[in-house]
Amino acid sequence: MTPEFEAEYRRRQKARAKVTALALGAMVILFFAIAVVRMH
């Protein structure tokens, strides 16, 4: 593996981790909102 390729791979991995974290956070907020609505 060349250093350039490795840097690109790491950069993509970070971007994917951010997207995954955002999706997970959005799901948690959605579930929380549904729970609050159902309580009332």
How would you describe this protein?
The chain crosses the membrane at residues 21-39. This is Protoheme IX farnesyltransferase. Keywords: Membrane, Transmembrane, Transmembrane helix. By secondary structure, the protein is mainly α. Helices cover 92% and strands 0% of the residues. It is built from one helix and no strands. The radius of gyration is 17 Å and the shape is rod-shaped.
What Rg is obtained from the alpha carbons, in whole angstroms? 17 Å
Encode the helix/strand succession as letters: H
Mean pLDDT: 95
- Count of alpha/pi helices: 1
Helix content: over 70%
Look at the helices and sheets and give the structural class.
Answer: mainly alpha
Multimerization state:
single chain
Number of beta-strand segments:
0
Label the overall shape.
rod-shaped
Beta-strand portion reads: under 5%
Low-confidence stretches: none
How many angstroms does the end-to-end distance come to?
57 Å
Please give the largest β-sheet: none
